[in-house]
Specification:
Number of helices: 14
CATH topology: Farnesyl Diphosphate Synthase
Strand content: under 5%
Order of helices and strands: HHHHEEHHHHHHHHHH
CATH superfamily: Farnesyl Diphosphate Synthase
CATH architecture: Orthogonal Bundle
CATH class: Mainly Alpha
Number of domains: 1
Number of strands: 2
Radius of gyration: 20 Å
Structural class: mainly alpha
């Protein structure tokens, strides 16, 4: 499945230059770091969701570009901070900002990006868009803290897992879609529908990420990485809740004490696969995909609606 970038090709090109302008600084060191960050951005999935959601509701305008920039600024800020929290030396196959400039600079860079995003909206009176995104940032912080709390015990109910990923991952994608829609129509009902659409797409996105931990092909993310970091993924939670006491005890012992040993990590992955945890997660991911599609079908049929559907399919079927 290819990304539907052709529908917003000109907008994405214009966004590139606008985003570079948005992160510029008068501090030489900060400007160098920003250039490094911009050059290593990913596939711009979130800005694509913003632009397609906007186009679904009306004509793309300056407010749409600012919404896309705000989403990318906030997302980048959280990634920079996440690398500090996770002590991660890599980001998308390159050295992370944290690896190159260490903790103090990374924290300040994340703060700088957050401030730039806030000012971009405030200076242009984009209050409703800022509200959507600020609420998402609050939820992301709550999700991260809840995950941190639950990871200590390795005892998480499935309902808590959904709360964590809804806040941590899906809230930003939902806000991105709502902000995009609002920028072109100022219709709360349409914006809310798009928020729910994005939230369900985000849930599917995170569950797909969970599945990468058990993939055998080259996916750009180390297999077993979440196990090594003691992160509770849906396949693992399902297995811990369904297996017998002896197997559960063994899995928890490995994750807590032998999570750096490749053979032990592989053993956990095999137990998860044998328990049906992989298939269960695939089914749940598909459920969220179809929920997103149902909400999208509330909008009139168009090339843009089809593009958004293809974008969610890409999220569901991607290999990395």
């Amino acid at each position: 499945m290819n990304l539907p970038a052709h529908l917003i090709e000109n907008e994405l090109k214009a966004f590139e230059s606008r985003f570079r302008e948005a992160v510029k600084s008068n501090v030489p060191m900060l400007d160098r770091i920003m250039q490094y960050v911009v050059k290593r951005k990913g596939k711009q999935l979130r800005p694509m969701f913003v632009f397609l959601s906007a186009k679904l509701c009306g004509d793309i305008n300056d407010s749409t570009y600012r919404a896309a920039s705000l989403v990318e600024l906030l997302h980048t800020a959280t990634l920079v901070h996440d690398d500090v929290v996770d002590d991660s030396a890599e980001r998308r196959g390159f050295f992370s900002v944290y690896a190159l400039w260490k903790t103090k600079a990374s924290v300040l860079i994340g703060d700088y990006l957050l401030a730039k995003g806030l000012l971009l909206s405030l200076d242009n009176n984009d209050y409703e868009i800022l509200h959507y995104l600020s609420d998402a940032v609050r939820k992301m912080s709550e999700g991260e803290l809840l995950q941190l709390e639950k990871a200590r015990t390795l005892n998480v109910k499935e309902v808590i897992y959904y709360e964590i990923i809804k806040n941590k991952t899906a809230s930003l994608l939902g806000a991105a879609c709502a902000a995009g829609g609002w920028s072109t129509c100022q219709d709360r009902m349409k914006a809310e529908r798009l928020r729910m659409f994005g939230e369900n797409a985000g849930m599917a996105f995170q569950i797909k990420d969970d599945l990468f931990d058990y993939a055998n092909d080259k996916i750009g993310k180390p297999t077993g990485n979440d196990i090594k970091e003691k992160k509770l993924t849906l396949p693992l939670i399902y297995t811990l809740n369904k297996c017998d006491k002896a197997t559960k005890k063994e899995i928890i012992y490995i994750i807590k004490n032998k999570n750096t040993q490749s053979d032990q990590v592989k053993k956990v992955a095999e137990l998860v696969t044998q328990s049906g945890g992989i298939q269960y997660a695939v089914d749940k991911m598909n459920d969220y995909y179809f929920k997103a599609k149902e909400i999208l079908n509330l909008f009139p049929e168009s090339e843009t609606r089809l593009g958004l559907e293809q974008l969610v399919e890409f999220v569901k079927d991607r290999k990395y």
